[in-house]
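Help needed: design a sequence for this.
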């Protein structure tokens, strides 16, 4: 009996694997963290406890209230820097915790 199946390029297999929701969300959050590291100063990065995205909202947990205020005042600048780093206009709003 002859087997009848089509071979798929490894690139297509990997892309379909990465496009799964749980995996793509994890990879996207890693990209967001890297963009955050490249967009902000070291002192802000040191006090950043958590950063993640849900929809088009970037959630940031900062342990220093003074830096939290600084981020609030420059909110649009931070959004622009991160979107520029991601090369997409994804982030529309920042929520600080």
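Sure. Designed sequence:
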């Amino acid at each position: 009996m002859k087997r009848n199946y089509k071979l798929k390029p490894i690139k297509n297999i990997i892309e379909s694997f990465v496009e799964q929701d749980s995996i793509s969300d994890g990879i996207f959050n890693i990209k967001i963290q890297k963009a955050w590291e490249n967009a902000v100063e070291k002192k802000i990065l040191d006090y950043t406890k958590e950063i993640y995205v849900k929809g088009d909202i970037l959630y940031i947990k900062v342990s220093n209230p003074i830096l939290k205020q600084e981020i609030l005042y420059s909110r649009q600048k931070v959004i622009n820097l991160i979107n520029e780093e991601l090369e997409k206009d994804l982030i529309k709003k920042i929520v600080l915790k």
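The chain is about 55% helix and 20% strand.
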